Predict the 3D structure of the following.
Amino acid sequence: MPQLAYVNGRIQPLAQASLHVEDRGTQFGDAIYEVCAVLNGRILDWQPHLVRLRRNLGELGITLGVADGPLTLQARRLIERNGHTECIIYMQISRGTAKRDHAFPSDAPANLVMTVRRFDFAQRIKQLATGIAVITQPDNRWGRVDIKTTGLLANVLAKQAAKEAGAFEAWLVSGETVREGSSTNAWIVKDGRIITHPTGTAILPGIARDSLIRLAQGAQLMVEERPFTLAEAMHADEAFLSSTTAPILPVVRIDGQAVGSGTPGPVTARLAELTWNEVARQTGWRA
Ligand SMILES: Cc1ncc(COP(=O)(O)O)c(C=O)c1O
């Protein structure tokens, strides 16, 4: 079955789907995006993703002429037409196509594109047993990384550095503070307390992060939303990361140094159980 993409109201073969060369997303990174997990054919945490998407549009003053209802229907239709039950859907909205000029165009409608890719979520369950390694990189990003824009060059370079080092992720460090990963939120566990950077302008407010906090609190686990240093992370009992495509993964090495025992810890394991139970509750999916 050929892969299909959605471009401004039309579903078409991915190979032919395109935007104009003067799309502002391409020229300026003047675009926002969302990535949602689809398991058992159902979109996980759709409502929070929609809320974040609308907030990001509002922050940048981009007007999308598609309401939530039709957007939801179109997203579901694209998923169904692609025929995958385990996949991710990528949605991107740029300010539109216009003659290149930094200031906003006055009459360009936003461009909405969506793509769907098969995704193996079961691999994330297997990785719970081994954990993954991260390296650290300087946080070179702009000051509003809470807005999920396509301007991801600093994230791209950090992720490439991680890949070249044989690590899964790069944790972005500003001064002494660990902010988050290049495409994931960062967490540590110390003396039973689960610690992650607070929201604000210095991290992306991850949907998986938010879900984890609610699940942890619901299970009477202690969560602290506060900045933590790299030294704290190095001396933590456990560490883990979270994102839509990796809802929870134990971090067992940071810059080559073992975290705690160097194996996935019990608090992370408990959170993983809560997380995947929540996935099953919402979507019916089980590994
Ligand atoms: C920089 C950054 N932080 C955190 C996340 C995790 O966010 P979410 O849980 O919404 O996938 C992402 C996801 O793309 C990201 O790019």
